[in-house]
Amino acid sequence: MPRLTDARKELRRTQIADAAVRCFSRNGLERTSIADISAESGLSTGSIYSHYRNKADLVRAAACEVLAKRADVLREYAALDAPPDPDELLARLTAAIDPAEARVGVQTWGEATTDPDIRDIVVDTTDRMRAMLHDCVTAWLIKVKHHEPAPARERAAPIAHRVMALYQAELLYAALRTPTEETAS
Amino acid sequence: MPRLTDARKELRRTQIADAAVRCFSRNGLERTSIADISAESGLSTGSIYSHYRNKADLVRAAACEVLAKRADVLREYAALDAPPDPDELLARLTAAIDPAEARVGVQTWGEATTDPDIRDIVVDTTDRMRAMLHDCVTAWLIKVKHHEPAPARERAAPIAHRVMALYQAELLYAALRTPTEETAS
DNA sequence: CCACAAAAAGAATCGCGGCTCCTTTTGTGA
DNA sequence: TCACAAAAGGAGCCGCGATTCTTTTTGTGG
Question: Looking at CB atoms within 10 Å, which of A18, B112, B133, B149 has the fewest?
Answer without folding.
Answer: B149
